[in-house]
């Protein structure tokens, strides 16, 4: 039995707002069209849909995600992520090719920044051998968004962060001029600074990071010191 997403898609279509859609597309640099549904309303629609129709079974996850991802409007991609985040405890190593496909398909920071820490991160934490198979190739990939995902998957690890891995990944990309890589490095350092402030402070001062990465990485430490 297939997982029917049509009720959700009809709900989105009924909620479209052209004024919001134009503003949301502009904010995303016109990368994608939008229905114009703001986040709280979209999440409520997804919640209502799940309440009525349930979540996809394990063998329905991939087709459900790809069905939503195939829709041009960005809210459908967000809905796919809403489903995956609710299912993250059911995700296993067999879903990593799907997550990798999502990172490299219709890529932008808004989806990658959810997939990496909220979907890939828990999988890598449960099975660290997957880091060798996936994150290691990602961090040296020519694909910008795979590298960003490798930098960000530990974002929520706190004391469980593999510090040596994080710092090695940062140094492998420290000379990048890509805005989204420089920002990812700064973000990863800023988050880990909340767990290991002295270590992060030393790392930033001892290594030649790009000014943007350094500035972003020091934000929390600078606020803490005032």
UniProtKB/TrEMBL annotation:
InterPro entries: ARM-type_fold, DNA_alkylation. It comes from the Bacteria. This is DNA alkylation repair protein. It holds the Pfam family DNA_alkylation. It comes from Sporolactobacillus terrae.
């Amino acid at each position: 039995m297939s997982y029917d997403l049509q009720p959700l898609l009809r709900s989105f279509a009924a909620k479209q707002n052209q004024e919001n859609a134009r503003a949301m597309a502009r904010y995303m640099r016109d990368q994608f069209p939008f229905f114009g549904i703001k986040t709280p309303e979209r999440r409520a629609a997804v919640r209502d849909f799940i309440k009525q129709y349930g979540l996809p079974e394990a063998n329905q996850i991939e087709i459900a995600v790809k069905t939503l991802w195939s829709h041009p409007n960005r809210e459908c991609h967000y809905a796919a992520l809403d489903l995956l985040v609710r299912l993250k405890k059911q995700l296993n190593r067999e879903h990593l090719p799907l997550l990798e496909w999502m990172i490299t398909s219709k890529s932008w920071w808004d989806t990658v920044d959810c997939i990496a820490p909220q979907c890939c991160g828990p999988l890598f934490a449960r099975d660290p051998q997957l880091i060798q198979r996936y994150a290691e190739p990602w961090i040296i990939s020519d694909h910008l968004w795979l590298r960003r995902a490798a930098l960000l998957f530990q974002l929520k690890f706190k004391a469980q962060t593999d510090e040596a891995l994080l710092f090695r990944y940062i140094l492998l990309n420290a000379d990048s001029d890509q805005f989204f890589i420089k920002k990812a490095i700064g973000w990863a350092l800023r988050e880990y600074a909340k767990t290991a402030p002295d270590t992060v402070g030393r790392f930033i001062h001892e290594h030649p990071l790009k000014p943007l990465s350094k500035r972003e990485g020091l934000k929390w430490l600078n606020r803490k010191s005032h």
